[in-house]
Design goal:
69% of the residues lie in helices and 8% in strands. With 383 residues, it is α+β, with helices and mostly antiparallel strands. A hairpin with an 8-residue loop joins strand 4 and strand 5.
């Protein structure tokens, strides 16, 4: 379609596309500005809607950010009450504002996600599985990029309702919807709300996929974490072992996922001060990672660091220090000398040095770690 002229609009490039529609950037020759057009039947030039202006405004002001937020919030309210025409108009204006911050800005992705939801619900209908997917994608963006957990929760509840009606309440897709909603609660520390959702998700996948299916482990780990966060250790412990047993039987004794399960169980015991239980689990996780991934993989550094911290907590400084040094060397080589994980290794080593009377060496490592973290914060400001 690129290069075609429709009326007075010359197609420049496709911005986003799907099975039901495409959105293209075009040049409106009469007023010499960029616009976006939505073709409701991809590959056809017959059905065309001019969606919004993409004229580039001057960069800048915080007022523009506020205007985008207002448009998104008002558009969301219109969507929730079923006024899709009003919602599309508002989100189209929001996309115009978002483009002012650059094509890679997260606000562009969020606004396009809203427009995709509107497209799906109006063309495919409110109960279509494609709409459920679009809603879930938008919810993920709202929560992880925009920090809008309330908005994400509402969308994931809509997703779950669609899934339950479309495929039935015991389908694995419903388990995924339950899990994703529970993750939102878990991320906010709302463990009591997350727990029954995770429990139901686990019950569904255990029934649908067999008790020993490797995908069951993912759901078990999520449920275990919410139990652990609430100090329900008696409920958590057998699920750690269940996940470990499933991995070992289905994946074999040297699979990376088995190392992950071993590490999680080791961390569980380590956090409760059960060091003797944790040590062999950490050791086995390290051995698997070294065998499967090689001795200089970043995951090996992670395992080395965990074992070193355990030895440190046990007062086994002589055993801990070689692991700390090796973890630091691997991270510097594989991740670069200014990676946040290098800072973590430096901090852990500095703590050991202080406890063994080597304060001057510790200060050097602490200063370097502080510089790394400051540089990372400058280059990755919180949005």
């Amino acid at each position: 379609m690129t290069g075609n002229t429709l009326s007075h609009c010359r197609i420049v490039e496709k911005i986003v596309g799907g099975t039901m529609c495409e959105v293209h950037r075009a040049r409106e020759e009469h007023v010499r500005r960029d616009v976006a057009i939505k073709v409701l039947s991809p590959g056809s030039l017959a059905v065309l809607v001019v969606v919004l202006s993409l004229a580039f405004w001057p960069r800048g002001a915080s007022a523009q950010e506020t205007r985008w937020d207002t448009l998104i919030n008002t558009g969301s309210e219109a969507y929730q009450r079923g006024d899709y025409a009003q919602a599309e108009e508002l989100f189209s204006d929001a996309l115009e504002k978002a483009e002012e911050f650059g094509p890679d800005d997260s606000r562009v992705r969020i606004t396009f996600a809203w427009l995709t939801v509107l497209n799906d619900i109006q063309i495919l209908g409110p109960g279509h599985l494609a709409l459920a997917k679009s809603l879930d994608n938008l919810a993920d963006l709202l929560a992880t990029v925009h920090g809008d957990y309330a908005g994400a929760e509402s969308l994931r509840r809509q997703t779950l309702t669609i899934l339950e009606k479309a495929v039935g309440p015991e389908h694995p897709q419903v388990a995924i919807g339950l899990n994703n909603l529970a993750v939102l609660y878990n991320d906010q520390g709302k463990y009591a709300e997350a727990e029954p959702l995770f429990e139901r998700a686990v019950a569904i996948v255990e029934k649908a996929l067999r008790l020993e299916h490797p995908n069951v482990v993912v759901f078990l780990h999520n449920l275990v974490e919410v139990y652990y966060a609430q100090r329900k250790y008696a409920k958590a412990e057998p699920l750690y072992w269940q996940a470990l047993a499933i991995d070992e039987r289905t994946l074999g004794p040297e699979h990376p996922s088995l190392a992950t399960s071993l590490n999680k169980l080791a961390e569980f015991y380590h956090a409760q001060g059960e060091h003797e239980q944790a040590e062999p689990l950490y050791q086995r996780a390290l051995a698997i990672s070294e065998t499967v991934l090689g001795p200089e993989h970043p995951d090996v550094a992670f395992r080395l660091n965990n074992l070193a911290v355990l030895y440190h907590h046990q007062g086994k400084y002589a055993e801990a220090e070689p692991f700390l040094k090796r973890a630091l060397a691997i991270r510097e080589k594989t991740l670069g000398p200014e990676h946040p994980n290098v800072a973590k290794s430096l901090e852990n080593h500095a703590a050991l040095l202080r406890e063994t009377g080597r304060g001057n060496e510790a200060e050097e490592m602490e200063a370097r770690a502080k510089a790394i973290r400051a540089k990372h914060a400058r280059e990755n400001p919180a949005k």
